[in-house]
Amino acid sequence: MSFSTFDELLAIVSPRITLQDTNMRFAIPAVQRLAVTLRRLESGQIELPQPEKVPNDLNGKAMPFMLIGYEAFALSEHVLRPYPSRNLTVQQRFTTYVPAE
Do residue 68 and residue 93 come from a single domain? Predict the structure, then answer.
């Protein structure tokens, strides 16, 4: 991951992962929290729940838990990336849609 991509990702997640200092300790900076999380995710040290059956699925097949990344993330067993936003078919646009919070 490039430095500029890391900085872009940090700007997105920083408000959610920044903690306050207390009288007993200093909070771990957001940049360190993100770096450690990405390193552990890449090395497989973050354990995700075991695959489960999806409710109302006719096939009854257990599906693995996934994380949704964006183009900066490498594809892996548990990381999905959306399609690039150019020249998408209707199906790809539907699949890529992630609701905003």
Answer: yes
